[in-house]
């Protein structure tokens, strides 16, 4: 059974600190408290591009991934190049992503075919290919998840304010 990964936008700093060798329990507690307060207030923050330079993170400097994004009527932007007004519910979007994941795992179709046919992201035109993501510019939960996948590994459904995502690391 698959599970949904819900990643608040503010969690990037916590994840970077966890993977870094430059952290301690006190600094993690401060960050967690700030994230909790910001979440309750509905405040979302993103770091400047240079913020990640303070961290010494292990792993590859870049990864290449594909994405399928299914938007729903509560998405930040409930429209796409495919549909002027997206009316599907969040649950319908989740069900679609879960079905796509099942089809890919059972080799009934390919990630690229599903992305081209259904994804609400412009990357759909390239089979969902997001190109190379660099570690030094990690700015979103999807990028954090992408770096945690092994080559060829398919993510669980990922929920963000944009919609429901499925990520495949290809390099």
TrEMBL record:
The keyword Membrane does not apply. GO terms for molecular function: peptidyl-prolyl cis-trans isomerase activity. Residues 60-171 form the PpiC domain. InterPro entries: PPIase_dom_sf, PPIase_Pin1, PPIase_PpiC, PPIase_PpiC_CS. The keyword Secreted does not apply. It catalyses: [protein]-peptidylproline (omega=180) = [protein]-peptidylproline (omega=0). Its EC number is 5.2.1.8. PROSITE patterns: PPIC_PPIASE_1, PPIC_PPIASE_2. Keywords: Isomerase, Rotamase. It is an enzyme of class 5 (isomerase). It comes from the Eukaryota. GO terms for cellular component: cytosol; nucleus. This is Peptidyl-prolyl cis-trans isomerase. It comes from Bicyclus anynana (Squinting bush brown butterfly). The gene is LOC112047841.
């Amino acid at each position: 059974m698959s599970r949904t990964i819900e990643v608040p936008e503010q969690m990037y700093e916590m994840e970077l600190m966890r993977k870094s060798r430059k952290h301690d329990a006190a600094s993690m507690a401060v960050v967690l408290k700030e994230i909790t307060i910001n979440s309750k207030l509905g405040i979302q923050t993103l770091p400047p591009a240079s913020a990640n330079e303070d961290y010494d993170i292990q792993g590859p400097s870049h990864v290449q991934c594909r994405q399928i994004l299914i938007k729903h009527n509560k998405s930040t932007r409930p429209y796409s190049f495919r549909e002027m007004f997206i009316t599907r519910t969040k649950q319908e979007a989740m069900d679609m992503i879960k079905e796509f994941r099942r089809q890919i795992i059972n080799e009934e179709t390919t990630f690229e075919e599903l992305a081209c046919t259904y994804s609400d992201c412009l990357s759909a035109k390239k089979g969902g290919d997001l190109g190379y993501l660099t570690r030094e510019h990690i700015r979103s939960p999807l990028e954090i998840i992408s770096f945690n996948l092994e080559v060829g590994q398919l993510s669980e459904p990922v929920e963000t304010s944009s919609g429901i995502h499925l990520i495949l690391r290809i390099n």
